[in-house]
Model the fold of this input.
Amino acid sequence: MGKSAFITGVTGQDGSYLAELLIEKGYNVTGLVRRNSNPNLEHLKAVRERVRFVHGDILDQRSLIVALEESQPDEVYNFAAQSFVGASWTQPVLTGEATALGVTRILEAIRTVNPKIRLYQASSSEMYGKVREVPQTERTPFHPRSPYGVAKAYGHYITVNYRESFQMHASSGICFNHESPRRGLEFVTRKISNAVARIKHCQQKELKLGNIEASRDWGYAGDYVKAMWLMLQQTEPDDYVIATGETHSVREFLEIAFSRVGLNWQDHVKFDQNLMRPAEVDHLVGDASLAREKLGWKPTVTFQRLVESMVDADMERVGRGENHWISW
Ligand code: F7E
Done:
């Protein structure tokens, strides 16, 4: 019989790519969805019929225990979080409840139902924040710069702590930014690719942005979910940086994105002070040597190709008449 996996945050970018990967590998996949939300299964179109959905909430301990009892997974992948850094200053308590304590609830649910279940925890490069060294490795100290980064640091350490306290097979992927055409519209990459397509189709004139000098190590989400799966196939649990090793500014992203459709970004982009963050993460670049050596993992999509594929996908979507407008 095939293995079974339980995914929280299954309707999001990473959850949907991982569901596709696991189904291809013959897994039975169960996805956790919130009952009071209007679940958008758009990203799961390809595998919707093959994923079993259970209702529950990362904020509700009992619902997690019941969901695990019902699905009896071999592996749990925890993507559920308030994942938008910008919103973490306006909803700091919710961010802490979901992104930090949510991890403890998942760990407790695993301990209660079956401590042999393996866990993947989605840690984040935002934990490095005001970086202590360049590039960042698994040993680089954390200095988070947002309530989100602080919450992720808690989630990371509680995962390490349960591994050490209860010998659980719990691993964290310290993932640097990873994007795709399924990225949420609030994140800068997709905000740009969506705006480029709308501007090209004369549905929008300008694009308001905050700090375009920030630089990130941007990879392709489809590559990153492979690393997550590999982590849970190892005999021993561990923490791994998942990154491309290259960094690029938002400005460089703009240059490639606009020129993909023959436009000049300077003609359309306006600075908006309201989009500046109270504390910024200026520069991130990861060293994924450990993942390369122990997991045999490496990224396959270049920065240029990533930007172009996002613009192409949004051009096609807007061309079909599907329209997403974002005001922040
Ligand atoms: O911002 C700057 C912004 O929101 C990237 C999440 O997946 O990756 C992501 O966090 C940069 C920042 O992603 C706008 O100030 C300028 O410097 O796309 P972002 P993020 O904050 O790096 C990490 C790894 C995670 O774990 C998170 O969950 O772009 N920026 N102007 C802007 N950013 C946004 N969103 N919107 C702007 O208008």
